[in-house]
Design brief:
Strand content of chain B: under 5%
Order of helices and strands of chain B: HHHHHHHHHHHH
Number of strands of chain B: 0
Structural class of chain A: alpha/beta
CATH architecture of the largest domain in chain A: 3-Layer(aba) Sandwich
Number of domains of chain A: 2
Number of helices of chain A: 11
Strand content of chain A: 25-35%
Largest sheet of chain B: none
Helix content of chain B: over 70%
Number of helices of chain B: 12
Shape of chain B: globular
Oligomer: heterodimer
Order of helices and strands of chain A: EEEHEEHEHHHEHEHEEHEHEEHEH
CATH class of the largest domain in chain A: Alpha Beta
CATH topology of the largest domain in chain A: Rossmann fold
Largest sheet of chain A: 6 strands, mixed
CATH superfamily of the largest domain in chain A: P-loop containing nucleotide triphosphate hydrolases
Structural class of chain B: mainly alpha
Distance between the termini of chain A: 36 Å
Largest interface: A-B, 33 and 25 residues
Number of strands of chain A: 14
């Protein structure tokens, strides 16, 4: 079930939290929402879930408009809010039962679904406790269970792994990946490694606008455009090597790496590669090329570049 | 309707899982029983097989108890953020409001049903005007419904339960007492208007045993005004500035 967001704007007072955003998420796709705090991730997600209406634009889930038929859309969506609000005084099973009924599940199917959710989300040991007695990690699992209970076609997860320990984070990621094969999943995070590990596509959002949209590999290419090499050359004084490298055709910048004898970082000019040139240079001068490594731009760098201005 | 009932059920569970419901029931029965049977203008002093004394007491006890029931219904959900999950379920805002309304009304109905032994006791003491008794109960129920809808409204505008409680009592006291006093003090149109707005006069006319459409219309208007106002507060989140 596709989620189509069209020209959505939402203002808080005079400030635009989300500014004319458009994107589409297809079935079977896991899309990661990345952005600094206050960029508009949560606002966009709340608008998709029908928690509030956008000031402008429309959102369609499986062709149904959120503003025209909110109840129908809400039936298709499973939502885990950022703060994971739960009724502390309710028991885990009672709460899941209540949610299942509100979501319109037939009464006979509910016990089976609850059993399934308890096992999928690893709640077996805690199912008879009150929610208020659970640790943060288990509350997060209850939050996930309530979002999944009606087997929704679309899952909206606002920072699903916050508050979990590293083992739980891995488990939840695996779970999301597994579920995401048949569903449409939108998750937000500000942990880049997480988005890279779980998502097929990344949307980077900054100051209410989408500044990048693509697979992690796409984004790297887009941000780079030029090649970065780390080379170590021996057999001559450092300064000689430095000036020889600098004189090469496609080289834009050479940085000696501090604390090493003959290591340099070489940045190429737009669209050019220096690997062969460096090699031929060494051969002709009789130097020893002991290291030649292409440096991958990290997602962190892309993120900073796109969101810092 | 189904969703309304699901929400009402959860609210009722919350009442009975915590001590709230029991404390309120015990206090209500204690107060009304004490003043009906033991103290002041009780049944034995008046010497009539009538529940008028009880209705007079319940009129005031319910006025104070109902805001205590309704104050947390929206305020707590807003404070803890659970309102977000409720509003993203496939239910309408109206179903949420009426669900909570229904839960509070059921609790009050239970409290009133528990006073039925008073009725049977009085009945065994002498001839009772049955019509007046049932009308009195109906009047209390309608009055309770009015204060529940006012209480829900004040609970929906704040995330602080104490603020909800106090503002609910503040709005309530106008209908409960002040409009009636104003009606006596004012003449002409203002006097007539306050006279009509006074819940007391409508309650008393029902409790006397006269079931008039005018009074029913008054109570229903007040109930729906409160419920609509509450729904409006929920709908406001869709408008800029008000999230």
């Amino acid at each position: 079930m596709d989620v189509v967001v069209q020209n959505v704007t939402k203002k808080y007072g005079s400030q635009k939290a989300v500014d004319d955003i458009s994107f589409t998420v297809k079935t079977g796709e896991i899309v990661g929402f990345l952005g600094p705090n206050g960029a508009g991730k949560t606002t966009t997600m709340k608008a998709i879930t029908g928690f509030f209406a956008p000031d402008n634009g429309d959102i369609r889930v499986g062709g149904i408009s959120v503003s025209e038929n909110p109840v129908e859309v809400k039936r298709l969506i499973g939502y885990l809010p950022e703060t994971n609000p739960l009724y502390q005084e309710m028991g885990v099973i009672d709460y899941l039962f209540y949610v299942a009924r509100l979501q319109g599940l037939e009464k006979e199917r509910i016990p089976d679904r609850i059993r399934e959710m308890v096992s999928i989300c690893g709640l077996a040991g805690e199912k008879h406790k009150k929610i208020g007695e659970l640790s943060k990690g288990y509350k997060q699992r209850v939050g996930l269970a309530q979002a999944l209970i009606h087997d929704p076609a679309v899952l909206i997860l606002d920072e699903p792994t916050s508050g979990l320990d590293p083992n739980q984070i891995v488990e939840i990621r695996e779970l999301i990946k597994r579920i995401g094969k048949q569903k449409t999943v939108i998750l937000s995070s500000h942990i880049l490694a997480e988005v890279e590990a779980t998502c097929d596509r990344i949307l980077i959002i900054s100051k209410g606008k989408i500044v990048a949209n693509g697979t992690p590999a796409d984004l790297r290419k887009q941000a780079q455009g030029h090649e970065l090499l780390k080379v170590t050359i021996e057999g001559a004084p450092r300064n000689d090597i430095f000036s020889a490298l600098k004189a090469l055709d496609g080289v834009k910048l050479v940085n000696p790496i501090e604390g090493t004898a003959g290591s340099f970082e070489i940045e190429s000019r737009e669209g050019m590669s220096n690997r062969r040139q460096v090699f031929t240079l060494c051969v002709s001068k009789g130097w020893f090329l002991t290291e030649l490594t292409p440096v991958e731009t990290k997602l962190e760098d892309i993120f900073r570049e796109l969101t810092m201005n | 309707m189904k969703h309304t009932w699901i929400i009402a059920q959860r609210e009722l569970h919350t009442f009975f899982d915590s001590l709230t419901a029991y404390i309120l029931l015990v206090l209500f029965l204690g107060f009304s029983g004490f003043f009906t049977w033991l103290f002041g203008a009780d049944v034995f002093l008046v010497g009539q097989a009538s529940l008028q004394g009880f209705f007079g007491i319940a009129y005031w006890t319910l006025f104070f108890f109902i805001p205590a029931i309704t104050m947390r219904m929206f305020a707590e959900e807003k404070r803890s953020g659970t309102i977000e999950l409720l509003l993203t379920r496939p239910v309408t805002d109206w179903q949420i409001v009426t669900g909570k309304f229904l839960a509070a009304l059921v609790l009050i109905a239970i409290a009133l049903a528990l006073t039925l032994p008073y009725y049977f006791t009085v009945w065994s003491l002498g001839p009772v005007d049955h019509g007046a008794v049932w009308n009195g109960y109906l009047g209390l129920l309608l009055m309770s419904a009015c204060y529940i809808s006012i209480g829900l409204f004040t609970s929906s505008v704040t995330n602080n339960q104490i603020v909800a409680l106090l503002s609910s009592l503040f709005i309530g006291i106008f209908f409960h007492l002040l409009f009636g006093l104003l009606a006596n003090g004012l003449s002409g149109l203002p006097g007539k208007i306050s006279g009509y707005l006074s819940l007391q006069s409508h309650f008393e006319s029902i409790a006397r045993g006269v079931l008039d459409t005018k009074d029913i219309v008054y109570f229903l208007s007040l109930i729906f005004a409160g419920l609509f106002a509450t729904e409006l507060v929920l709908v406001r989140r869709n408008i800029t500035d008000n999230v």
